[in-house]
């Protein structure tokens, strides 16, 4: 368990640098590196400027991306929320890609644990 905690913590540090690399994201839920004791029901991201969600994948460790319902035709917004299916205990990585109003593509990833 100590090795898993160390691995998740290390990955969280690397991933958080990637997720905030453009300085555009101001908040995320679940938080990067979070250990969720209650069920995570959504992925939520707040940006400093409106963005259009291009792609969002939530991938369990050792598994395939979860089925998510994403409206790619939605207008640009500063707040993105996508409902999650019931999560089994595991480590999850959130991969996102968004486009700013100026056409600039941004992407990042971060991780959390579901207990």
From TrEMBL:
<keyword id="KW-0732">Signal</keyword>
<dbReference type="Pfam" id="PF04234">
    <property type="entry name" value="CopC"/>
</dbReference>
<feature type="domain" description="CopC">
    <location>
        <begin position="22"/>
        <end position="112"/>
    </location>
</feature>
<dbReference type="InterPro" id="IPR014755">
    <property type="entry name" value="Cu-Rt/internalin_Ig-like"/>
</dbReference>
<dbReference type="InterPro" id="IPR007348">
    <property type="entry name" value="CopC_dom"/>
</dbReference>
<feature type="signal peptide">
    <location>
        <begin position="1"/>
        <end position="19"/>
    </location>
</feature>
<dbReference type="InterPro" id="IPR014756">
    <property type="entry name" value="Ig_E-set"/>
</dbReference>
<keyword id="KW-0186">Copper</keyword>
<protein>
    <submittedName>
        <fullName>Copper resistance protein CopC</fullName>
    </submittedName>
</protein>
């Amino acid at each position: 368990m100590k090795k898993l905690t160390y691995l998740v913590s290390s990955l969280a540090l690397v991933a958080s640098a990637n997720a905030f690399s453009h300085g555009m994201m101001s908040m995320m839920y679940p938080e990067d590196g979070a250990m969720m004791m209650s069920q995570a029901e959504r992925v939520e991201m707040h940006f400093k400027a409106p963005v259009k969600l291009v792609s969002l994948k939530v991938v369990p460790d050792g598994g395939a991306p979860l089925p998510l319902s994403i409206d790619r035709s939605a207008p640009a917004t500063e707040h993105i929320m996508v409902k999650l299916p019931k999560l089994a205990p595991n480590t999850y990585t959130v991969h996102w890609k968004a486009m700013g109003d100026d056409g600039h593509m941004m992407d990042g990833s971060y991780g959390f644990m579901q207990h």
